[in-house]
Records
---
Amino acid sequence: MHPSLLLFIKLVLFTGFLSIVGWGLYKGYNAICPDGFNACFGLEDGPGSPVVGPSGSERVITTPPASRSINYSKCTRFFNEDDKTKTCYNPNAGTGGVGWFWSNTKDGVECKNLVTNYKIDVSSAESSHNVIRSHVLNKKNANGIIFNNARSWTIGPDGTKYNMLINVTPYDKDGKVLADPLMGEELNPLATGTDCGAIGVTPIDFFDSFKLPEAESKEPAPPPPVNCEGSYQPSTACVAGPYCGDMGLVTQKFVATKQPQHGGTSCPTNEKSVQCTRNQPCTEHPNPPAERPSCQYGAWQDETVASYLNVSELFPDKDPKDGTSKGGTDDRVCSKQWRDGENDLPGIRKQYRPITNVNFSRGQQTVGCVPQTNDTENTDDPLATERRFDCNENYYKPVNCTGAWTTGRTAHRDFREMLPGPGGSWADKRETTVYESWAAKKGFEFGKHGGDNSCPAHATERVKSRTVSNR
C-alpha cells in the first residue's frame, strides 16, 4: 500500500476515535453540570436546568437568590428525580406518588444530610395547573411520597381523567432552598403505572395533608388577652348592733386596678358583704354571750326574688355542684342562664333561713341569741341566715358552627354538539363548572355547648354553577 494512503487511513481512524471520546465527555459533562461550567463549579449562581412540562413547552426552574441556601450551588445538581418505575398514578382511586434521590457521591451525601424537610406542590390539569396544593414533609431522609383519596382532583364529574404535576423542593434548617425543585414530574393516567409499591412509603390522605395557600390576613394578629386585676375594698362602715362584740356586715366593692382587654377575664360587678365586729366606741352588752342561748334555725329556702340578687330575672339551676347541699332545681333561682365563655363568671344562687327561738326579721343585724356559724357553708351573713352558691357554673352559651361557602376552582370541558334541523351541522361548545368549598370565617369554631355542629368537612366541595357556551 502506498505510504501516503496508509497515512490518510490512520488520520481518519484517529479523528474518529477523538470524536467518539469527545462526544462521550460532552454527554458526561452535560449530565453532571446542566447549569453550565460556572454554576457547576460554584463560580456563580446560575438558573436551574430547563424541564419540559406536560404541554411540551420548556420551563426554566429558577430559585430567587434570597431564598437559596449557601450550599445551593453545590447541592442543586445532586438532587434528581427517581426512575419511572418509582412513580404511580391511579386517577380512578385518587392515588399517586413519586420518588426522588440524592446522588450517591461524597457531595451528594453531604447535601442530603443538610435537608430538614421537603415541600411538595401538586396541581391538576383540571384547573390548567393554576390551583396548587402544598404539603411539608418533615423527614430529612425521605425519598418519596404517596397520597390517596384525591379522586375529586384526579377525575372530573364527567369521568375525564386529568394529569397531575408534582414538584419537590428540599429545604435546610434555615428554611432556605438547597436545590432547585424537581418540577414537572408528570403523573399521566396513560403512561404511569398504578402500582405504588416500588416507592416504599406509607400513603397520606391528600386533602388532610395537601393544603391550599391561605390568603394573607390584612389585619394584624390580635393582642393577647389582659385579665382584670384588683381587689375588694370596703364601701360602707360596719353595720352592727350597739354592743361591743356585736357581729355585723360591711359591704365591699371590687376596685379594679387593671381593666380587662381583648377577651380577658372580666371584673366582678357584684358587691359582697363580709362579717365585721363592733369595736370601740361601743356599749358593753347587758347579757354577755355566755348568758345568751344559741340561735335555732328553720329550713333553708331558695331566694326567688330577682332584686335580692341585683338582677332583673332569675333562671333554673341546671348544674348542681358536687359537695354542696343546694341541689339542682327547675325553680328560677340562678342569676344567670349560662356563662358566655370560659372567662365569664358563673351565676349566683342565694338561700336564706329564719331564726326560730327569738324575735327575728330578715335583714336584722343583731339578735338575742348566739349565731351558730359552724353548721353552714358559704355564708356571708354574721347571723348565719343567708348563704350563696355558684349556679349554672358548667352551663355555657351554645356556640353554633360558623363558616361560609366560598367560590373556588373553575373547570372547563370542551365538546361538540349536533345542531337541530337539516344538514347535520355541529357547534363547538364549552361547559364551565364553578365549584365552591367550605371556608372558615374569622374566629371559626365547631359547634359546642349544644350549638349547631353541622359544619361540612374541611375538604367538602360542591358545584355552584354549570353553564354551556359557544366557543
Note: Residues 420 and 426 are 9 Å apart (CA to CA).
---
Amino acid sequence: MKRYRNRIIIAVIFLAMVIVFFYFIRDEVIETNSNLNENTNTEQATETCREDIDCKSTCPCGCIHIDENCPDEGKVACGMIPECFCQEGECQELSKQNLNITNQWTADDCLKYSSPNTSSFCLDELSLFKNDQSICLYTVNNVEGYLKNDFLDLVRDRADCINQVAQQNNNTSLCQLINEELITDISDNVDSEGKRTFIANADTILESQQNYCFWSIAADLDDASICDSMENDTIKDGCYKYLAGAIQNSQYCKEIGDAVVKDNCFSDIATMSKNKDYCENINSHKIKTKCLSYFGE
C-alpha cells in the first residue's frame, strides 16, 4: 500500500513538472510570435513611403525609408550618393529609368513630387526627352518648394536645364536664353533686403552657365568660330582654352590673347596628353617649370 502511494506521489510530481514546463514554453512561444509580428509590422511600415521626404539616401544601402537603418553605413566608401524619391509606396533612386517618362507626360507630372530636387531632375529629363527647353521654365510653379536661401539653386536648375537641351541639339541660340529673364519671377519672391545680393549672385551663375553652354557646343562641333564670335576677350580666351583642352588641340592655345591663360593652356595640354614638348611653348618661367616638373624635370 505504501509503495502504491509513493508511485502516486511521484506521478503527481511528474505531472506538475510537465505542466510547469509547458507553461513556460507557451510564454516563450507567445513572446516570440509577438516579436515576429512586431518586426513584420515595422518592416512593412518602413517599406512604405507616402512622400519624397519619407525616403533617405544611404551608403551603401541606397534609397531606404527614413525609419530604416543601414547596417553598413559609414563602414564602406561610396561614390556619388543618389537622390531618392517615393514612387508607388517605395523609396527609389532618382534616375531616368525610374521616372518612366512617356510622351504623355507634361511638366505638371514633374511638379507632383514634394522635393524640389526631384521635380528639377524630372523637368531636366522631360525637357531632354521632348527636346523642349520651355519645360525648364515650369519650375516657377514649384518656387515655394525652395527655401529662400535656396532660390539660387532654382536659378542653377533652370540654367542647367536649358544648357542640357542646347548641348543636345548643338544649338547656340538656346544658350542665349540663359539670361536675366530667367530670374524675373524668382526675384519677386526674394525679400527686399536680400534682393540686390540675390540678383548679383544670380547674374554670376547665369554668366557661368551661358559661357559653359557656348564652350561645350564649340568643343562638340570642334568649331572655333563660336569662340571667335564672343565680344568679351576674357570669355573668348576661356572658350579657346576649353576648346583646346576638350579636344586636346594645342593650335587653339595660340589664339588666346592673355599671356598667362595661353601658358596655362599649353601646360594643360602637356599634362593631359602626357607630352612634355608642349611645355616648350610656355613663356612664363614659373608656369614652364611647373609644367616640366610634372614629367620629373
Note: The CA atoms of residues 263 and 282 lie 5 Å apart.
---
Amino acid sequence: MATPITAPPSSSRFSAGRATLVLIGLLVTFGVLVCRVAYLQTYGRAQTLAKAQRQQYSTQTLRARRGTIYDRNGIEMAGSVQTQTLFVDPKFMQDTFQQDGKSLVDLDKSVAKLAGIIDKDPFTISQMLGDRAQSRFVKVAEDVKK
C-alpha cells in the first residue's frame, strides 16, 4: 500500500499581528518626531535661537601657557617666554580706507603714526604693506612692549 504524501508543516513564521504592531510603533515614532519638529519651528523657536546664539558667540579668554620642562634632577631645561607680536591685515586696511572715502595719503599718515608708536621706519612699513597688498597677514613688529 502506498502511503499518502502530506505537506510539511508550515514553517512560515510571519505573523500579521506582529507586523501590524511593528508598523504602528514606527508610525507613532515618526508622528512624535514630526510633532517635535513642528514645536521647535513654532513655539520653541525663540528658545532654540537663544541657545544657538549662546553656543556660537561665546567669548572666553584662555590662558594657555606651556609648562616648564625639568630634567631628572629638577633643573629647568626649557621654559616659556611670553612676547607680543604686531600683525597687520593690509587688504582690510586698504578696503576700510576706501570705504571711508579716505585717500592713500591718509593711509600713509596712519602708517607713519603706527611706525612712531613701535619705533620703526615708516617707509619700511609702507613698503612691507605695499609688497603684500592683497595679503591678509603681515608681521610688522616682534617683541612689542605694552
Note: The chain has a mean pLDDT of 85.
